[in-house]
From TrEMBL:
NCBIfam families: GGDEF (TIGR00254), sensory_box (TIGR00229). Its cofactor is Mg(2+). The lineage of its organism: Bacteria, Pseudomonadati, Pseudomonadota, Gammaproteobacteria, Pseudomonadales. This is diguanylate cyclase. Its EC number is 2.7.7.65. It is found in: Cell inner membrane. Pfam families: GGDEF, PAS_3. GO terms for cellular component: plasma membrane. SUPFAM superfamilies: Nucleotide cyclase (SSF55073), PYP-like sensor domain (PAS domain) (SSF55785). Keywords: Coiled coil. Residues 95-148 form the PAC domain. Its main location: membrane.
Length: 345
């Protein structure tokens, strides 16, 4: 190994003994204990300060490497040996470790340990190593306490983050549940409970939307209204439950012929209305005729033929929805006088 032997030539005019004494004095000034390892004999000489630092009597321990191994804390031993061997092998430029040493009373003291080769044989192999221990116990305890506190803060932060995430997820779930409940409440408030088609409130809202769309963009829109003929006879002869079954069957049959964009609503009693976006009067008339024939074929276990009267009208620019509904209603009145027919208004 490369290095430089400390001899009297290092300090001109000084003997080897004087040089070593000066070196020891210097080490004792900057450290709490020094050690001197003769690698060839495995003899380790330790300073009085080293023994005093750990509470042992001077020269009270065997002067060899085994003593050092015995005082190192078991939890630190492997790490220290790896660092020491790396220096011996030349893979690390210096030996410097921090670890705990066992004191005479059984307690452990944190020390820093630094060492280096100081003598070599003719082939360059190290024959002597000198090092110094320094008491870092208070500083190390403070450092470890700070690390522990930082770890606790990190764990607390993670706990808080998890709590915030959990609360956020819970809040999101609650908001989703509220949104679903609100949507359900809105659907229920705008749905006819018997036939499950739109009610008058929803239909009027949809008519307003289509009326504004017509005014802005000119998209055509038509409406058809129909009323079941002689429906009072069904209720009077067969009872209201039978009448309800007829209304449900009518709603199901009509819904089969409509698009998703169409708004089909129960206007009141046995009267229904359909909003047909992007549909002109001719297409609405064709649909009304088809529905009129569909209703005649409904099998509702009735002793008489089921028929309906229809009115059809197109939405006109400048005409408000109230006037349009009134026009449809007047045309339906005329259709009811003839029964089972379609009147265009």
């Amino acid at each position: 190994m490369e290095g430089r032997e400390i001899t009297d030539s290092t300090y001109p005019g000084a003997s080897q003994e004087a040089v070593e004494r000066t070196l020891r004095f210097a080490l004792e000034i900057v450290s709490d204990g020094i050690w001197d390892w003769n690698i060839c004999t495995d003899h380790v000489k330790r300073s009085p300060g080293w023994y005093s630092m750990l509470g042992y009597a001077v020269d009270g321990l065997s002067e060899n490497v085994a003593t050092w191994h015995e005082v190192i804390h078991p939890d630190d031993f492997e790490r220290v040996m790896r660092g020491f061997q790396a220096y011996l092998d030349g893979t690390q430029p210096l030996y410097a470790e921090e670890y705990r040493c066992r004191c005479r009373n059984g307690d452990y003291l944190w020390v820093s340990d630094h060492g280096r080769f100081v003598e070599f044989d003719e082939e360059g192999w190290a024959t002597r190593m000198i090092g110094a221990h320094r008491n870092i116990h208070e500083r190390k305890l403070a450092e470890l306490a700070l690390q522990q506190k930082n770890q606790e803060l990190l764990e607390l932060n993670r706990t808080l983050e998890d709590l915030v995430a959990a609360r956020t997820e819970a809040l999101q779930q609650a908001n989703r549940a509220l949104a679903e409940q609100a949507a359900l409440a809105l659907r229920l408030s705008e749905t006819d409970p018997l036939t499950q088609v739109a009610n008058r409130r929803r239909f009027e809202r949809q008519v307003q939307a289509e009326w504004h769309r017509l005014q802005r963009h000119g998209h055509p829109c038509a409406l058809l209204m129909f009323d079941l003929d002689h429906f009072k006879r069904i209720n009077d002869r067969l009872g209201h439950p039978a009448g309800d079954r007829v209304l449900v069957a009518v709603a199901e049959a009509v819904r089969q012929d409509l698009r998703e964009v169409d708004c089909f609503a129960r206007w009141g009693g046995e009267e229904f209305v359909v909003l047909l976006p992007d549909t002109d009067a001719a297409a609405a008339l064709s649909l009304a005729e088809r529905l009129r024939l569909t209703l005649r074929r409904i099998d509702a276990a009735l002793p008489m033929l089921l028929t309906a009267s229809f009115s059809v009208g197109a939405m006109c620019p400048g005409e408000d929805p109230v006037a349009l509904i009134r026009r449809l209603d007047d045309a339906l009145y005329l259709a009811k006088q003839q029964r089972d027919c379609v009147v265009v208004c």
